[in-house]
Amino acid sequence: MILTKIAIVGRPNVGKSTLFNRLVGRRKAIVHKTSGTTRDRNDYEVSWKDKKFIVTDTAGWSSDVSVFSKDMSRQLGIAVEKADIVLFVVDGKTGIHPMDAQIAQQIRLSQKRAILVVNKIDTQAEEIKGYEFYELSFDGTVFISANHGRSIHDLLDRIWDNIKYNRKSKKAQEILKIIFVGKSNVGKSSLVNAVAKEERSIVHDIPGTTRDSLTVHVRVNDKEYIVIDTAGLHRGSKMKDDMEYLSTLSTDYAIEDADVAVLVADASQGIGETEVKVARLLHEKKKPVIVAVNKWDLIEEKEEAAKYFEEQLRERIKFMSWVDILFISAKTGQRLERVFQEAELVFKQYSKELTQEELNEVIRDAIARKPYTSKGKTLKLKEYAQVASKPPIFVFSVNDMELIHFSYERFLENCLRARFGFYGTPIILKFRKYYKKKMEQ
Prior knowledge:
Elements: E1 4-9, H1 16-24, E2 42-48, E3 51-57, H2 67-82, E4 85-91, H3 98-110, E5 113-119, E6 140-143, H4 152-162, E7 176-181, H5 188-196, E8 214-220, E9 223-229, H6 242-257, E10 260-266, H7 273-284, E11 289-294, H8 302-316, E12 324-327, H9 336-350, H10 356-369, E13 373-374, E14 377-378, E15 381-388, E16 393-398, H11 406-420, E17 428-433
Helix pairs in contact: 10-11
């Protein structure tokens, strides 16, 4: 399904990310008073009335000569080029800035349909402040407050009017959302760029280049995916400022939204403390996980290195013994397609639902092979059922809760995994006291 693409552009700090968040209906982009917070292009699908479209948040247009500003300006130029409609955001409180005129000229040269969005107009009385923006000579102008939500519906209606035809299609299949997480500078952004076959994330050797979570639509082997690049995660003691905290918060939100997580490690550094921390976060959020060791092209003794990584993974991330490990290279493209094939497989495991007959068979066999007895009492599993998937959750009613021991929980989990797989995904076992139902009088 081909959707209309909407690019949000403007100079730094006019409220583009606030507007993006308002349009998508959630806190998707980091919002901060520091100019240049958004450095990459960020996609999200939005529905309004009977039409869908993709909104792209962009870095602020800047004339600064720094390395990042040049990269951000290039990203913005690409976003405008690929957009069908441009939302040109200006600051209604400060009035026309010389840079606004430069951006307006650039948009006109692109010959794209454009809507001038005068932001930070909190009341109707304040609209008079924005009249000077008519000098920029755009046909469509909307006065809004992205922060307060004022006139956002008017803007959405204007966008709807500019989508000239309704691109209806057959029911869209569910698109898998895959998030890349890990510490800074392990190559997450390079992986996204390699898969997207264009520069979507700014790649730089300075850790922390990616501040926001970046969402990109890609096609691999004729199938669509959403890939999410994230800011590098650090230990809490290393969070030096609120921008780094917000980056981590954005990553946390993105993990909640993802279907499958890919924990990216650096082949030259191994599985360290940060990887363990990230793995624990993913485990707490009950997400299916793949471990991808990037920069594999730099390793010479690959057989020995692979064995070393396997041992490190099993030793340091014991709580995630069910995870698979892949050795990849963003630079050469080695096994990148395999990441998506693996993501499909682990998501199926994550979504798996057993029949009661299947569950009965494996649990009865487990009890027969290894009954659990403590202090002269035997644990009895009176009733059991799978009550949910994504992740798979099993509930057991037992005769005595004091007999529940973590070693027997692990035994039951291992029996389920040995029989049904569940590789790449957590499974949850819950126990409760069994109460015999009273016979009706």
